[in-house]
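Quick question, first post here. What does this chain look like in 3D?
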Amino acid sequence: MSAETTGSRDFAYWRLRFRAWRHTRPFWAGLLTALGGAPIAYFPYANLKLGHLTLAMATTAGAGSLIIGVLLVTLGLTMWYHQIVRVFAGVAAILLALVSIPVSNLGGFVVGFLLAMIGGCLALSWAPGTPAGEQPAKHAAGHSPKGPEAPEGSAPDGREPQLGSGPTYSPGPAPWSDDSTNGKVEANGGRNSAG
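> Answer (accepted):
Ran it through. Tokens below.
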């Protein structure tokens, strides 16, 4: 080892790795959903002590509360590790949160219900972003909208724009069309005609 390397990774390295991992998935949705499952599963089996008084919260739906809580924790982990099913996991988390209201002591005394509901909504609204250096290509590779050799500020055909002419716009072919029609529409029948 050289004097420049320490042999171990420092805190900043792991923090940046965690940040990069967190930004590629619905992290907060999974965390809130998993945290919402904890009070829903815990409170029906808890014995709360208030001084010398023991308050047992056991209900007949204790098994249902445990199943709902475990499923919410599982859905939270699914949101982290399988982002592709985030919509299903979000809808399932919202439905389980709603079911936990009558089944599990008002959804874990409303705390678990709110956490699971917010986590499910966040999972539904999350969308993967594009990396900072990568922008979607709007034109064919190597060709700018004005042409590959056109100087900056010139018209697409190479001549200088006239004052007051305004910007020109050419929509080009539709992305779903093949270039065989060259922008012409046949009106004598065709694939979608009724006769």
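The chain has a mean pLDDT of 77.
The chain has six helices and two strands.
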